[in-house]
Write a sequence for this structure.
C-alpha cells in the first residue's frame, strides 16, 4: 500500500518508473514521464487480459482474435504516443527510421502469411457446405459426393502452407531487432524507444503464437527474455509462461488439428465418415441425422471464427501499412532543418515499398484465381 509521503505512488503500481529510465543524458520531464507511464500501463492491462483462463483457450480462434485486437490497440497507441511526443520525423535518428521500416515490412509479410492460411481454411468451408448439401439426399450418388467432399476437406486441413513455413525466418528477424538503438541527448527519443520496445515484444509474441498454432510447428513458438525494467515485464512473463507452456503441453500429446474449432469439426467428420463410407444410406438413421446436424453447427462456428479473425488481421495490416505510409510521406516533405540523409533515404524506401506492394497485389490476385479454379466445381450445388 502507498505511504502518505509518496502521493504519486498510486499511479505507479508496478514499481518506481524513475528507476526504469537511465539518469544519464537527458532527464525526463514530468510530462514525458506521464506519457510513457500511461502507455506502459495500458500495455500491462492488455497483456493481463490475454492470460487464458484455460490452457486450451489459447488454441481457439476466439483467443487469436482477442490477441490480434490487443495488438491493434497497442500499435494504435504507439502512433498516438508519437503524436503526443511532438517528435517530427525529421528529428528521428536514421537508425530509428530503419528499425521501424524494417519491422513494419516483416509484420506485413506475417499478416499476408496468416491471411493466406485463413483463406485456405475458409475454402475448406465450401467443401463442408457441399458435403452437408449432399447428405440431405437419400441417393447413393449424393452420398458418394458427400464422402468425396469430406475426403477433400481432410486433405485440405492436413496440407502445409508454404507461406506459414517462412514465418520462422521472419520472426527470427524480428527478435534480432528487439535491441533498440541507443539514444543520446534526447528525452523524447528515450520515451519513443522504450515504448517501441514494448510494442515489439507484444508483436513478436502474438505473431509467434499465431504462426505456431496455424502451422502446427513448435519451431515458430519463441520464448522472449525481457529485462525486469519495465512496468509490463511481469505481466508479459506470466502471459508467456502460461500460453507457451499450454501450447507445448497440448502439442506433446500429438493432437491434430490443434486449433480448437477445427478439431471440433474434425471429430464430427471422423464419426460421420464411416456411416457413408460405402455410399449407401446409413442404417442408424438417428445417429446419422445427429452427426449431420452437429457438423452443420460446428462448421458454421468455425466459419464465423475464421471470418472474425480475418477481419482483425486485415485491420492490423492496415494499421501497420498506414503507419509506414505516413512515415514515408513525412520523409518526402521538404524540410530545411532535416538531415541530408532523409531525402535520398526516404525516396529509396518509397521505391522499395511500391515494389513490395506491387508484388503483394500480384500474389493476392494469383491466390484468388487459383482458389476460384480449385473450388469452382464445389460451388455449383446440383
Amino acid at each position: 500500500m502507498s505511504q502518505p509521503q509518496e502521493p504519486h505512488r498510486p499511479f505507479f503500481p508496478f514499481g518506481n518508473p524513475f528507476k526504469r529510465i537511465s539518469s544519464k543524458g537527458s532527464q525526463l520531464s514530468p510530462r514525458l514521464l506521464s506519457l510513457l507511464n500511461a502507455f506502459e500501463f495500458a500495455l500491462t492491462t492488455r497483456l493481463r487480459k490475454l492470460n487464458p483462463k484455460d490452457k486450451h483457450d489459447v488454441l481457439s480462434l476466439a483467443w487469436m482474435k482477442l490477441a490480434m485486437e490487443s495488438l491493434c490497440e497497442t500499435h494504435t497507441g504507439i502512433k498516438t504516443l508519437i503524436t503526443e511526443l511532438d517528435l517530427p520525423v525529421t528529428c528521428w535518428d536514421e537508425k530509428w527510421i530503419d528499425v521501424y521500416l524494417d519491422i513494419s515490412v516483416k509484420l506485413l509479410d506475417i499478416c499476408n502469411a496468416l491471411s493466406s492460411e485463413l483463406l485456405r481454411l475458409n475454402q475448406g468451408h465450401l467443401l463442408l457446405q457441399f458435403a452437408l448439401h449432399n447428405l440431405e439426399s437419400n441417393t447413393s450418388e449424393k452420398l458418394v459426393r458427400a464422402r468425396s467432399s469430406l475426403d477433400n476437406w481432410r486433405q485440405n486441413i492436413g496440407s502445409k502452407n508454404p507461406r506459414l513455413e517462412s514465418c520462422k525466418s521472419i520472426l527470427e528477424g524480428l527478435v534480432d531487432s528487439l535491441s533498440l538503438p541507443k539514444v543520446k541527448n534526447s528525452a523524447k527519443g528515450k520515451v519513443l524507444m522504450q515504448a517501441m520496445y514494448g510494442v515489439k515484444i507484444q508483436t513478436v509474441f502474438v505473431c509467434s503464437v499465431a504462426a505456431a498454432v496455424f502451422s502446427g510447428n513448435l519451431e515458430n513458438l519463441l520464448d522472449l527474455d525481457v529485462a525486469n525494467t519495465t512496468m509490463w515485464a511481469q505481466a508479459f512473463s506470466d502471459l508467456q509462461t502460461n500460453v507457451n507452456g499450454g501450447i507445448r503441453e497440448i502439442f506433446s500429446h500429438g493432437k491434430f488439428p490443434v486449433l480448437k474449432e477445427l478439431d471440433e469439426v474434425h471429430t464430427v467428420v471422423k464419426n460421420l465418415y464411416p456411416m457413408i463410407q460405402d455410399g449407401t444410406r446409413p442404417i442408424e438413421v438417428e445417429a446419422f441425422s445427429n452427426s449431420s446436424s452437429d457438423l452443420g453447427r460446428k462448421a458454421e462456428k468455425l466459419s464465423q471464427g475464421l471470418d472474425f479473425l480475418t477481419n482483425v488481421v486485415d485491420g492490423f495490416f492496415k494499421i501497420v501499412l498506414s503507419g509506414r505510409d505516413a512515415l514515408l510521406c513525412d520523409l518526402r516533405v521538404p524540410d530545411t532543418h532535416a538531415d541530408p540523409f532523409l531525402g535520398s533515404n526516404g525516396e529509396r524506401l518509397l521505391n522499395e515499398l511500391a515494389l513490395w506492394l506491387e508484388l503483394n497485389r500480384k500474389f493476392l490476385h494469383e491466390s484468388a484465381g487459383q482458389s476460384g479454379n480449385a473450388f469452382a466445381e464445389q460451388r455449383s450445388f446440383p
